[in-house]
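User: I'm designing a mutation panel for Mitochondrial poly(A) polymerase and want to avoid disrupting the core. Could you give me a predicted structure to guide residue selection? Please restate the sequence first so the numbering is unambiguous.

Assistant: Good idea. Sequence first, for numbering, then the predicted structure tokens:
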Amino acid sequence: MQMCVPPQTCSFRPQIRVTSEERSSNLTLEASRCFVSARVRRKLLPFWLGARLTSTMAVRGVGLLTGLPLRAQTRTRIRCPAFIRLRCAGTVAADLRREEQPSGSVETGSKDKTPKKTFPEVQNERREQAQRTVLIHCQNKVSERKFLKYLSQHGRIHSHFFYESFGFYAVVEFCQKDSVDSLLKGTQTPANGTEAAIPFRSRFLSLKLRSPPSQGSEQPQVLLNNQLPPSNRKLSELLCAAKSIDDQLNTLLKEFQLTEENTRLRYLTSSLIEDIAAAYFPDCRVKPFGSSVNTFGKLGCDLDMFLDLDETKKLDIQKNKGNFLIEFQVKNVASERMATQKILSVLGECLDHFGPGCVSVQKILHARCPLVRFSHQASGFQCDLTTNNRIAMKSSELLYIYGTLDARVRALVCSVRYWARAHSLTSSIPGAWITNFSLTVMVIFFLQRRSPPILPTLDTLMTLADEEDECVIEGNNCTFIRDLNKIKPSENTESLEVLLKEFFEYFGNFAFSKNSINIRQGREQNKPDSSPLHIQNPFETSLNISKNVNQSQLQRFVELARESAWVLQQEEAAAPCPPSKQPWGLAALLLPSIAQNKKVQKKLPSERIKSLLESVKNNIAQSATHT
């Protein structure tokens, strides 16, 4: 059970916050019982004992739990957005639970006995957390101590952090939602002099100082923690310093996976957009989906959101009895698609004119899936808002299950995606390239084909489903078990190195010309059409999620897969001794020289063809002279 920090005890500490009385006395294990559960206390014991020797360091703001692993290295160059890890004591247990989440750090198999949360449970907890949170634009020289003291008059603060993204921002989570209401009641609409302000109220606030700080006043003590992935050069150094290829894949995942702060900011942004949509559609929900929630997201990925209007259609059965039926007066349109377009059109206008921090709003209403695209300046996210897209939400839940079942899945997917991006097989621009979603499904299919299988097929998950798991969306059977604890862990113990090498071998020799990929059954099937690459949509089975890929892009993928498999085979035969300053293993696969060498190799056959043609011409000329 986490305890919230009283208002008067919030003071600056990078990792944990304690009261002034605790600061002067020895920290004991009994004191920690106020903050964390018995299970977490066992993990914190060595750190609390070490903290008894560092009480003087605590006064200077040095983190007490210095032994806790950091998710990113502190870098001198600050890039936007950068987060500042400042928390109250209530988040210590939460930090440790995050370390228990699948992170690709285990060697093989899935032996973790910790109960796993279902996708709806995670979504609901994150949503409730976001509703207790405010986003505040601050001045750079704000005093962190005074800032917390001021906010604490509205209620106890559970946790907070700062980050930079076109300004200096604070994300503050209260223990109670009532504290947010109290803060909003004490917030005023700004007076901009000659400009007129649109009085739109939201949980995106701005902090102003009544008087400028004096020169000798307290300066904010902050610990910057860069939340952007490392540069290519830094990543190469990290990979070369790894002890094994398995370690390389886990390092790549650690550097690119979404951090806790970034995840919280994504749910908070969705919650702020929900507040705007609720002005028109009370009880609606805006839910993040896609890579932000399916465990495969990386730092810098877009934020996809889904406007769920189903909650607005639910009735209070207890108050709807009798012979009468009361309905809302509504306007009707010709089709569901037209209704979606009108809803998104209105929300797009609202975001453009009233949404704080929402810029570059585009209404893309005639796409196959209509959407509103915009940039949320305060968070730094590129956002897509859709509605009536429940199948995409189920796809996110399915990927969440696969990514949580076995720690190797996320590490392998992350590496294959990065490998594809390094060789321009994928692109952020729509076109004939393979998408990240297609690559993820290909990895899942490959893991289903292992012996024994690492991941179950979708049909297997369907047979395990209970009655409460049944789900049919627009005539498509989207049923699968949602409780991960009922799925038997795989007995496969293959290393990531073996899986990476054999992934490239498998698809380097896959019969794409006649077979399709189907994770529902986990086996190759005859292609139903002539598309170069056919990957069956898991739920809308008549659709091909890779229909956009042309033959030349597929051929590039196959050639690079074969070459990557060859590189790993050569290194295995040479038995390298890592770590090394020279790129090896995964780092060698990411080198641009592989693609450049490929271009050189393409030129060589053309030169041979030219010489062959010249030889044929000479032979013909000689034959003509002889005749």
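For picking mutation sites, this is relevant: The mean pLDDT is 80. Residues 406-455+490-590 form a domain with the Poly(a)-polymerase, middle domain fold (CATH 1.10.1410.10).
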